[in-house]
Amino acid sequence: MFDNADALLLARIQFAFTVSFHFIFPAFSIGLASYLAVLEGLWLRTGKALYLDLFKYWLKIFAIAFAMGVVSGIVMSYQFGTNWSVFSDKAGPVIGPLMAYEVLTAFFLEAGFLGVMLFGMKKVGKGLHFTATLMVAIGTFISAFWILSVNSWMQTPVGHIVGENGQFLPGESWWTIIFNPSFPYRLVHTVIAAYLTTALVVGGVGAWHLLKDKTNAHARKMFSMAMWMAALVAPVQVFVGDLHGLNTLEHQPVKIMAMEGHYQSHPDGAPLILFGIPNSDEARVDWSIEIPKLSSLILKHDLNAPLAGLDTVPLEEQPPVGIVFWSFRIMVGLGTLMFALGLWSLVARARKSLYDWRPLHKFALLMAPSGFVAVIAGWVTTEVGRQPYTIYGLLRTADSASPLAAPAVAASLIAFVIVYFAVFGIGTWYILKLMHHPPHTDEPGIEETEHGPVRTAGITPGPHQGDAPAFEPAE
């Protein structure tokens, strides 16, 4: 049934599917690791058991999300060798060392301290355990640092040379490659998005339990902390997003044209198209709702500044406008709602009704998954807007794929879809089950479950109950 299918399209769909699943979990675990460090730090500083209860409550959720992120990431990396071997061969000398640095720094740091963080609360001192929590949080940030450096180099490649065999080789300085022109903006924008994603989940869970019992002290505390994060960080994200957009305009102007829906050039100021239906066949946006010259004001800080359109770009160099146009608006629209939620929470605080205002709680609950949708929409905008290139301006996507037949790619795609929805669906269901139950006083930790942590060597023999010896002598 796939004999006439496009192997390249199937490979792109497969990578998009797996990376979208994967991105959900790091976007949550990066922020949640930092939140856990804050909770444990507040417990050590104040001695209030409430912070420890919240730490134990979210630690169980973090453990599952972190595990699913690691597993989905490992699977995704294999596709560089299966579906994208030409890309791996040509770009490997540059991106290979960067991804190895991620393993040698972030992954080893996380792996070294994760066990202490999850199971060491009663086995090591408070200071060492807090250090382990901090190291895991720092490790998640370092991981994001290296992965985003790789992705940013693919968006704005600099600091390399091209070898005789067509490979991209590192130039004189790795610093130029690592800190490429778009990397600082992309790193800050993505990490803030992860913090907002976590805040919205924590706020949504707190709102859920406040709707059932507004006197729950644990729910009140987590909701308050989450709303502070939304109120303070959402405006910062708007500012950082604007800087990121200006950087993209400088280095990837075609992506901005697709995001804005500018099929035609505007020599006297470009309008901001709020909504519409991109029509690439006719090179226009149908049924558009526009604000005159506002796009020029945002992008050039001048109402009358000229902006070039897609009519200046050859058709084969243009990305799929419809996808980029709408994914960008989904991201911005959800970001606007996040800003509104933070502002509403400030009004509620001023009125001393943060824990009593049920419409606010319902809105926060509705917004709980919005961070995940926004980060996926942002990723789609970034990656699809880069097309038709994997390495912008240097290596086309059509020239990056492995020479595979469509049925082979389709078979692995179907397998990924089935396995991912089964495995990660169950994991997500269990996370939601944990969130359904409110945190309470003397919240049990991971080590206090019925069976304890899994031991790689099996069940360690221990003494029997009563006075019986641990091992009965053979008859």
UniProtKB/TrEMBL annotation:
One protein family per Pfam: Cyt_bd_oxida_I
Domain of life: Bacteria
InterPro entries: Cyt-d_ubiquinol_oxidase_su_1 (IPR002585)
GO molecular-function term, one example from the UniProt record: metal ion binding
UniProt keyword terms in alphabetical order: Cell membrane, Electron transport, Heme, Iron, Membrane, Metal-binding, Transmembrane, Transmembrane helix, Transport
Residues spanning the membrane: 20-45, 57-78, 98-120, 127-148, 192-211, 223-240, 323-348, 360-380, 404-432
Chain intervals for the UniProt region annotation (Disordered): 442-475
Cellular-component GO terms for this entry: cytochrome complex; plasma membrane
Subcellular location: Cell inner membrane; Cell membrane
Chief place of localization: membrane
Biological process (GO), any one: aerobic electron transport chain
The keyword Cell membrane belongs to this UniProt entry's keyword annotation: yes
Biased composition annotated in UniProt, kind: Basic and acidic residues: 442-453
Keyword Disulfide bond applies: no
Membrane disposition: Multi-pass membrane protein
Similarity comment text for this entry: Belongs to the cytochrome ubiquinol oxidase subunit 1 family.
Protein name, UniProt field: Cytochrome ubiquinol oxidase subunit I
